[in-house]
Amino acid sequence: MILASIPTGQKTVTVTGQWQHDYGQQLQISGVVVDAVTPVHFAVEGATSAEIRSGTFSEGVLTVTIPDTMLSQSNIWWAYVVDVTDESGQTAYAVRVIDTKPRPAGTETITPDDQSAYDALVAQLNLLIASVGEVNDTATASALLASQSAEAAAGSAEDALNNILNGVSTHNLSDASHGDIRQLVQTAESIARGRATAYVFDTYADMAAWLAVPENVVLLVTGDNLYIRDTGIKDYWWDGTAAQELEAEAPDLTDYYTKAQVDALVPITITQAEYDALVAAGAVEAGRIYFVI
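RESULT FIELD:
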């Protein structure tokens, strides 16, 4: 289940941290007001076509099944909630899904998806290594392995150990294995090379709300930029524990005239009658140049 909440007064929200190939999921969007049955268009960012699914709106939540084509890849994709009238349709709300965690499709014998099998393999490997280090003859090692694995009991301790070691080696060398670890390695490399991830928010309040979710904070690495579209608000960066303002040097305007000062120095042209009226009223400004015509 992917949950998205549209902030009050907003039309777009960004969600993160989903898993690739996690099929059969539904998208639930709260904070919207739509018809009981509303079309939702799904599209990969940059694509020229979309897949349409019917969403059902009940008790303030719009629920729709996500197409497997969106969940099969790790690129950014969008869900557009379309408000259809008799004449046309227009996008009412949009959900942007980013930072999908890549992982294998599940075709390997052992994958990080099958965590229990992988953990059992590692535990057995550790026991075998410890056992072979303590015993010297194949018969004793085979007897120990028989109590741990029916497959190991059929062969010698050395053969069983080699089989497991080779399996782990093949698994680790596969590009599809350890997708989450490989992603972390890529992130570390990006930091080392001076690259940083950027997150964009409409307002400071949106950023604060996003940072209040622990699952979002764990995605951040030191140096990530937090940009705010509101032109009157400074942008931020992540220092590892909190958001800090991006420092920008403000120009020194000490030696510049203000608009009011410039206006006071600009000559004005008035008639003699107007000038006499100013003098009579005591409204002639000191330092002002008057051209009397």
